[in-house]
Structure formats: C-alpha cells, structure tokens
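2.7 Reproducibility. Because tokenized structures are sensitive to small changes in the input, we list the exact sequence used for Iron-containing alcohol dehydrogenase, including any N-terminal residues retained from the expression construct. No trimming or masking was applied before prediction.
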Amino acid sequence: MRFEFCLSHKIVFGKGAIGELGVRVRELGKRALLVSGRSAMRKTGTLEKVIALLRNCQIETELYDKVEPDPSLETVEKGIRLAKERKCDMVIGLGGGSALDCAKIIAGIVWQEGSIWEYYEGREIEREGIPFIALPTTSGTGTEVTSNSVLRNLQDKAKKSLRSRYLTPYLALVDPELTLSLPPEVTGYSGIDALTHAIESYVSNAANPITETLAIYSIELVAGNIMKAFCNGEDIDARENMSLASIVAGMSFANSGLGAAHALAHPLGAKFGVSHGVACGILLPYVMEFNIGTQEEKYAQVAFALGKEKKGAMAVEAVRNLLQKMKMPEHLSDVGVERGCIPGMAEDAKDAASLRGNPRPATEEELIDILTSAY
Ligand SMILES: [Fe+2]
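Resulting structure tokens (single pass, no recycling of outputs):
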C-alpha cells in the first residue's frame, strides 16, 4: 500500500464561528478582496456582517460581488484586476461553490505572470498566491477544503477544474448558521453534490484507507441529515452535520479524485446551464449502475451507510429514493437537454480528469450509453 494524503491548512468549524473572522485573518494584512455572488448574501445580511467583522479588526474590504453561477474566465479576470489595483493582501470568498471557486483562483494567480486563460489551458501555478479564506454558505461543494477551482469558458461552452496545491485555502471558516437561510431546493442539490463526492471518492480507483473512512462517514452524515435539513431549514443540528459532510467528503475526494458522474456533470452544466448538484443527482444512479459489477462489495457498504440492506443494488435505490423525496430531476430530458447533444457531451467528458478515478474505465461509447440511459 502506498498513498499520499494532503489537508487544507486550517478548518475552523462550528455555530457562530463567523464571529472569529476578523481575529483569524488580521495578521494577514489590512485589505481584503471580498468575493461573493450577486445578491443572496446581501439579502440575508451576511455580507454586511462580514464587512463589519473585518472593519472591527481594521481590515478594509474591497467588494467584488459579481460572481455568476459557474464563474467565467472573464469574471475571474475582472476580480484579479481589482485585487491588483487595490493591492489586496487576502481574498475572502463568501457564498456557494461558484463564489468560493472564483475567490480561490483570484488569490492563487493574482501576482503570477500568466493570465487566467493560460492557467485554464494547463499552465502550472508555480508558487503560493495570497491567502484565500473560504466562508461557505452552502453544504456540498467541498471547495472550502480542496485545491481545485471549477471555471467556465464562455468561448467553447466548457467547464474545467483547475488544480494546484497552491489553491488550497489558508483557512476554511465553516459556520453552519450561514446555511440556515438556504431554500429547500438548494439544500437538496448541494447535499446531493456532497453525496456524489463521497460515493465517487469511496469507489474511486485511487481511494486509500483514509479517504474511504472519510467518504463513508460523509455518506452516513448525508443519509442521516439531508432530509431533515430539506424539510426544516432551521434544524441547526442537521445543518451542522451537512456542513460537516461537505468538508469530510471534500477532504476525501481531494485525495482520491472523483468519477464519471462528475466527468459528465461538467458538460451538462456548461452547455445547458444545469446546476452542478442537479446534474450530479441525475447522473449518479446511472454511473453507479455502470460501475457496480466492478465494485460490488464497496457499493454494498455504501448501501449500508445509506441505511439500506448491504447489497450493491440497494445503494442505487437509496440514492433514487432521496432524489424522489426531494423532487429533484432524475432524467436529462427533465432539464432541457436535447437527445442529439449526447455524443458531444460524451466527447467533452472523455478526457476529464475526474474520469480517471472511475473504478470501471469508460469509453466514449460507454459514456454515450450512460447518458442515453439517463435521458
Ligand atoms: Fe461536485
């Protein structure tokens, strides 16, 4: 057995943890670029609270609240320009996966020579950027503890995950109270994203005993809490456990990689604007069915962690039950995908890094078969 396992720099977790923001980052400098989405954080009052917490510790805030779902390279470029002009010492991402991924890459490359387009095309990040602090307000993406950033290229309508150890957050400040205002729909699809991370990580052909232990724990957390959080958004214990599930799954997949559901989810998001968690939910059961013969024992463990009988097929049934209870789409035809686009999506997915973790190698034709069955 041989493996490597890396962790994010620091995680501060717990109800009310956001109150520590200023003291946790004041040693980093005097000016922060605060990156968030366009409105949600303003509506909940969280944005003002974060700015006040920083001000109380003599940190000025430069607000960049222009991040759209699935941030484009242009959005990243504008953020980099602002961070440079204002000579920001750190970047704080506040929001869901899109805001955090945008903030993360801005911090990572702001003072590097290359442009965002070059890094998107594969140029390596060669050294540390400025510190990135993640303040997640959803529970699912795991980006608060991972070293990748998913970005969208508007020119070729593609999404890609940029990876570098230099993108690891300096601090993940995870306060489950920030997720209390999430509507049920977002709770559902971000939770299914976390579940997909955990299951794909657990069965990945690059899994190791540590990632497997984390992944199974995350699956158990999702199984025990996602419906509670979905049905009653104010259930702080369920929210806390879902925030934990997101982190734990993120720590796992950052080391094991993912699988075919994530490889196929990216073209679905980039070409049809399907939310990432919704795409994962549609694809996961079909990818599990494709893989199950090669990992029967592991899928049986997944079924057990999901509260079902210890049989591989029961894991698929458990995931489908969850999707149905939360009324999430189960077919590509439910989300506006045209059948004729399936071959193009398979072609886009065949070289995705996530596919390398899939326990059963999938050819382009087999990816077409998976998408066709999910249609
Ligand atoms: Fe994901």
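The mean pLDDT is 96.
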